[in-house]
Write a structure and sequence with these properties.
about 35% helix, 8-stranded parallel beta barrel, secreted, about 375 residues, alpha/beta, hydrolase, TIM Barrel
C-alpha cells in the first residue's frame, strides 16, 4: 500500500467540472474524456509528475503476455500511471499480423483506461517507400517524407496507413461506451539521423507539411477525436528557437516533449545541468502557450546506478519549477539480460525505485481517481 501524504491526498480530491476549461487543445471536437484528461494532465504537472513505462503490460524482464502484470507493479504494487504502446505493427506487415497487433493493443488500451491509467503511443513507422524498417539504412532506405506528402508518389499509400490508425482509434471503446483517449507521438526524435524521417533526410518544409497533414487528416477527415498530439525531438537543441525549428504550429501540437537518454547516464555519462535546461525549455513553452509538456522518453539501460531514481531522475525533475505531466522510461526486453529501463524484483535499483514511488511528487496508476470523469482540484 502506498503511503499517501496530505499533499497527494489534496491533489487527488476532485470536483465535478464547472465553467470553462483553462487550456484549449487543438481538437475542438475532442471527446469529453479527452478534454478532461488534457486539463488534468496540466493540473498534475504543477506539483507532481506521472510515471510511465513503455510496453509495460505487453511484456517485461523474462515474461510476456501475462494478464494484469508489469515489472513496475511487481516491485511497487502499482502499474505505471502512463503505459506506452506502439503503432509499429500497423503497417509493413501482413493483414493477419496487423489484425493480431490491433487485437492485442486494443485490449491493452481499454484495460488501462478501465483501471484508471493513461496510454501514450509512439510510432516506429516502417518506411512506406522502401524495404527498410523505421531505422535509416543507406542500403535500403529512401527519404520518404517528401514522397508521402500531398502530391508525393506515396501519398495515397500514406493515407491508407493513417486510415488503419483511425480505425484503431475508433475501436477502443470501453465498457462505459466511451472512446479511450490516447497521447499520440508521431515522428519522434526527428532531429536525429537514425530514423528515416530524421532531419538529415527531410527538409524542414516537408516535415512540417507532413505533420500538419497527419493531424488534419486524422482529426478533420477521419474523425479521430480521442488523440492528444505530442511533439518530441531528441536533444539537439539548447534554446527555445532551436527546439521550435521544425515546429508545425500551435494548431497542430498539444504537448511539448523531449527524448533524452544522453544527459541522464547513457554510456555512464551525465550532464544533468544540460538535461534540466532542456526540460526547463519545454516546460516554459508549455506554460507560455497553455499546452502540456512531458519527458516523453528517458532512462538508464540496465539501471546499474542503484540510486538513479532518487539521486538522478527525481532530483532533476524537481529543479527549476519544471512542470511536466509525465516521465516515461523505455521498455524491459523479454529476453535480453541487460536491455531494461525499469527495475524488476531483485534488481539493484529496486529499493531506490520504491523510494521514488513513495515520494509525494510522483504518481502511479493507483494514485489516479476518475482522471477521465472529473477535474482534479488543487486545494
Amino acid at each position: 500500500m502506498k503511503f499517501i501524504t496530505n499533499k497527494k491526498t489534496a491533489l487527488l480530491s476532485v470536483c465535478m467540472i464547472t465553467g470553462h476549461f483553462l487550456f484549449s487543445q487543438i481538437d475542438k471536437k475532442a471527446t469529453k474524456e479527452t478534454k478532461i484528461l488534457y486539463q488534468n494532465l496540466k493540473t498534475i504537472s504543477k506539483n507532481h509528475i506521472l510515471f510511465g513505462h513503455q510496453h509495460a503490460l505487453e511484456y517485461g524482464h523474462g515474461w510476456k503476455d501475462e494478464s494484469n502484470k508489469s515489472d513496475v507493479k511487481l516491485v511497487t504494487g502499482s502499474h505505471p500511471a502512463v503505459v506506452g504502446i506502439d503503432f509499429s505493427g500497423f503497417s509493413g506487415h501482413s493483414k493477419e499480423e496487423i489484425e493480431k497487433n490491433k487485437t492485442v493493443l486494443k485490449k491493452n488500451v481499454i484495460d488501462t483506461y478501465e483501471r484508471g491509467g493513461i496510454t501514450t503511443v509512439s510510432w516506429h513507422f516502417n518506411n512506406p517507400a522502401s524495404g527498410g524498417g523505421f531505422y535509416w539504412k543507406d542500403s535500403v532506405s529512401l527519404a520518404a517524407m517528401s514522397l508521402i506528402k500531398k502530391d508525393g508518389s506515396h501519398h495515397e499509400q500514406y493515407k491508407e496507413i493513417l486510415k488503419t490508425i483511425a480505425d484503431f482509434a475508433h475501436s477502443v471503446k470501453a465498457k462505459d461506451g466511451k472512446l479511450v483517449p490516447m497521447i499520440f507521438r508521431p515522428f519522434h526524435e526527428f532531429d536525429g539521423d537514425w530514423f528515416w524521417w530524421g532531419k538529415k533526410y527531410t527538409s524542414r518544409e516537408d516535415f512540417i507539411e507532413v505533420w500538419q497533414f497527419t493531424v488534419s487528416y486524422l482529426r478533420d477527415t477521419l474523425g479521430v477525436h480521442n488523440f492528444i498530439y505530442a511533439f518530441s525531438p531528441d536533444t539537439r537543441f539548447n534554446s527555445e528557437s532551436e527546439y521550435l525549428e521544425r515546429y508545425p504550429g500551435d494548431k497542430y501540437v498539444d504537448l511539448f516533449g523531449i527524448d533524452d537518454y544522453g544527459d541522464f547516464g547513457r554510456d555512464r555519462k551525465y550532464d544533468l545541468d544540460a538535461g534540466v535546461k532542456r526540460l526547463k525549455i519545454i516546460s516554459d513553452l508549455a506554460i507560455k502557450k497553455k499546452k502540456l509538456a512531458a519527458f516523453t522518453e528517458t532512462g538508464l539501460e540496465s539501471v546499474p546506478n542503484k540510486t538513479w531514481w532518487t539521486d538522478i531522475l527525481l532530483k532533476s525533475l524537481k529543479q527549476e519549477n519544471i512542470q511536466l505531466s509525465y516521465v516515461l522510461v523505455w521498455r524491459n526486453d523479454v529476453h535480453s539480460p541487460t536491455h531494461f529501463y525499469a527495475p524488476y524484483l531483485g534488481q539493484v535499483s529496486a529499493a531506490d525505485f520504491i523510494e521514488f514511488y513513495n515520494d509525494p511528487f510522483t504518481l502511479f496508476e493507483n494514485d489516479l481517481k476518475d482522471i477521465y470523469k472529473k477535474k482534479i482540484k488543487l486545494k
